[in-house]
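Go through the following before class.
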Amino acid sequence: MKLFALSVIGLMLLLFLSCKDNNGTETVSLEDISHTSDKFDHIEDNRETAEIKDEKPKQAYFLTAFDSIYKDASWFMLDSLLFPDRFGPSKMEKWYLLSQKDSIVALHYEFRDSLRTKNAFFNWIDCYGPTCDSYQVGSQFKKQSRNSLFLIGANQLVYIESKTPIATKKLVELLNEEKKDQNWIYVLEIPGRKKTRWSKIKEGEIQELKGQQDNKTAGL
C-alpha cells in the first residue's frame, strides 16, 4: 500500500548519490533521477499519491505547457546540483513530475548571454549519459530507454526527459504562444529507440539541420 510513498522517498535518497567534477563540486546525475521511473510502472492506488506532498507552483516557466500536456502529474522540486548548474545560470527551474503512466524531468536555465548558453549545451553533449559519450551538432545519439528533448535559445536551455514520446511542436507552441517568439537555435530530439532529429526554429518555422556542424559556428 505504501509503494508509491516509499518510491518517492527512494527518489529523494538518490539525490544524495552524487558524483564529483574536477573542481570537487558534487553533482547529481540525471541517470539517478530519471531511471527511478521504473519503480512507478505499476502504481494503481490513488490513495498513495495523496500522501505525497505535491509541490506544484503557482507560477513557473513550464506551468501553462504542463497543465495541458501533463495535467494529472504531481510536481516535485529538484534542489540538487545538476550539470548545467556549473555554468552560472542567472535563473533556473528544476522539476520532477510523476503521473500514473509517466515520469518527467524538466529543466529550464537562463544565462546572461549566448556564449554561456552554448557552453553549457556543448559541454553537456560532449559527455552525455552514464558512459560519457561525446556528441556534436548533427550527431546520432545512442538509442536509450527514455525520450529526451533539448531546446537551446539565445540565452535559454530547456531539457525534457520522459518515458513517453514528447510532443515537441505542441510544447514549443505552449511555451511561447506568439510565433515571433518561437526561436530556438537548436532543437535536439532523442526519441528513445528512434533516430535522433536535429532542427532549429525561427519565428515558429521548423528547419532541419542537415549534416554535422562545427559547435562554435552552428546556428549563428
User: Anything to note?
Assistant: The chain has one domain: 3-208. Residues 110 and 156 are 5 Å apart (CA to CA). The beta strands are 19-20, 26-27, 74-77, 91-98, 103-110, 147-152, 156-162, 184-191, 197-202, 205-208.
